[in-house]
Design goal:
The complex is a heterodimer of chains A (289) and B (154).
Chain A: E1 5-7, H1 12-22, E2 26-29, H2 33-40, E3 48-51, E4 61-64, E5 68-72, H3 77-82, H4 84-89, H5 91-97, H6 103-108, H7 111-116, H8 124-130, E6 134-139, E7 142-147, H9 148-151, E8 152-154, E9 157-158, E10 165-171, E11 178-185, E12 196-205, E13 208-217, E14 224-225, H10 227-233, H11 240-253, H12 264-288
Parallel strand pairs in A: 1-3, 2-3
Antiparallel strand pairs in A: 4-5, 5-10, 6-7, 6-10, 8-9, 11-12, 12-13, 13-14
Helix pairs in contact in A: 10-11, 11-12
Chain B: E1 3-9, E2 12-18, H1 24-31, E3 50-53, E4 56-59, E5 72-74, H2 87-94, H3 104-117, H4 123-130, H5 140-153
Parallel strand pairs in B: 1-5
Antiparallel strand pairs in B: 1-2, 3-4, 3-5
Helix pairs in contact in B: 2-5
Classes of the chains: A alpha+beta (289), B alpha+beta (154).
């Protein structure tokens, strides 16, 4: 690892000012789980690291009746996994976190870092998207709010500018009669990253599907909404036939690459199977809610 | 430029001079001579480099030493009380839960963190917590036996 300056601001403004001052030569450091790897491999050689861990405003999970569940950028995966508040509001997050990487990574890696890295092989992004989640972003010019759909740009690329910091994830409360489920498949126990992760959310009006999100993870440069599959289900009374058709559509809408986690064809088959399971489970939860 | 940091390592205050790029593993092994934690995969997958940072297991290969400033570190060297082994160490010996020993300190420290958090874990909870530590000799059955035995005694 090449050497670098190490900076520890205590406010968001100070951190943004430091990033601006260094142009693209500084990187934000939170848990270091991602940066540690890419810097050792020489893929990134920042001249400065801006450690944001001393900024209290970025910590903690809280609930706001208007906005929803607010997750600070510095919340670690383990904090989210074990948070009673997160479990009360969105148990799907805690269940998913149990399978993220390993216990050591979960103790240091942060929710903000996970999103800001733009890593395509991840879990939280597709769940946040299915929940219509937003991110708050601070810069020297002020704050902006972006939907997760607009946040991810390409492999390891987000819409964060050089002097911007992701400060919070905001998850609005689910409408009544909603159910959500996340199903993840990992092809190998050696590498902890998922090969496919599908999140489905169903909102009902009586027995008819009023709204649905099908978000496919790890099978494209960013998480992908299976919009054609979603359209098939809206306005319908869901049954196995419609769900199967939506799953088939999702398998066509994703853009997987062949790698050690499976060939393209294999991953499409997994997307189809997982979409079926996730939509079915989300639907059953919505019926019971 | 080097930075001065202080760490509380195995209940002793230690002051070190490190470069920002120095990892916690390098600082603990090279500067403090505590070589129980091993460099394995170097990408936070295998668990050989595990240390407890404020009681929580972390991959010391990827934590910056400067980021651990002021924290409490536990390494395998800090577990025994004089000649008396920690119950987890004792169980690993009794059940032969190791061959080459390269992964052992990581397994034992991770297990310690688990038992500190949850004194009576189920077999499933042990498996989930330890899932990120790899034993290339394949001693998983013996490790499970040892840990189930600690659970009964604890």
């Amino acid at each position: 690892m090449k050497n670098f300056d190490y900076l520890e601001p205590t406010t968001v403004n100070e951190a943004c000012a430091l990033l601006k001052q260094h142009g693209g030569d500084a990187k934000v450091y939170a848990g270091g789980a991602y940066l540690g790897i890419v810097m050792k491999q020489g893929l990134l050689e920042p001249k400065a690291l801006v450690n944001i861990k001393k900024i209290d405003a970025l910590k903690g999970i809280r609930f706001d009746a208007k906005e929803g569940l607010i997750i600070g950028a510095l919340v670690t995966h383990r904090e989210l996994e074990t948070s009673a508040l997160a479990r009360e509001k969105f148990p799907v997050l805690c269940e998913a976190e149990k399978e993220v990487a390993n216990i050591r990574v979960r103790h240091v890696a942060t929710v903000g870092g996970n999103l800001a890295s733009g890593e395509p092989l991840t879990d939280l992004a597709q769940i946040f998207m299915a929940l219509d989640g937003k991110v708050k972003i601070a810069s020297p010019a002020g704050e902006r709010v972006l939907s997760l759909d607009d946040f991810f740009v390409d492999y390891y690329q987000t819409s964060l500018a050089e002097d911007e910091i992701l400060t919070q994830v905001v998850l609005p409360s689910l409408p009544a009669r909603s159910g959500i489920d996340y199903v993840r498949f990992s092809s190998s126990s050696v590498v902890d990253k998922p090969s496919v992760g599908v999140c489905a959310r169903v909102t009902l009006d009586g027995e008819v599907c009023k709204a649905v999100r099908i978000v496919l993870g790890c099978v494209g440069a960013t998480p992908i909404r299976a919009r054609k599959g979603e359209e098939l289900l809206v306005g319908k009374k869901l049954d196995t036939n419609w769900i199967e058709q939506a799953a088939r559509s999702a398998a066509e809408e994703c853009k997987p690459i062949s790698d050690i986690r499976g060939s393209e064809r294999y991953k499409r088959a997994v997307v189809r199977a997982l979409t079926k399971r996730a939509v079915t489970a989300a639907y059953e939860r919505a019926l019971r809610s | 430029m080097k930075k001065s940091i202080s760490l509380r390592v195995n209940d002793q205050e230690r002051n070190l001079e490190v470069e920002p790029r120095t990892t916690l593993l390098e600082a603990v092994r090279d500067q403090l001579g505590l070589t129980g934690a091993k460099l394995g995969c170097d990408i936070q997958v295998c668990g050989a480099c595990t240390l407890l940072l404020d009681g929580k297991p972390v991959s010391a290969c990827s934590v910056l030493a400067v980021d651990a400033e002021g924290c409490s570190i536990t390494s395998i060297e800090g577990l025994s009380q004089g000649d008396t082994l920690h119950p987890i160490q004792q169980a690993f010996m009794e059940f032969g839960a190791l061959q080459c020993g390269y992964c052992t300190s990581g397994f034992i420290l991770t297990a310690k963190a688990l038992f500190d958090e949850n004194p009576k874990p189920s077999e499933q909870e042990i498996r989930e917590y330890l899932a990120g530590n790899f034993c290339r000799c394949g001693c998983y059955q013996e490790i499970m036996q040892a840990l189930k035995n600690v659970r009964r005694e604890g």
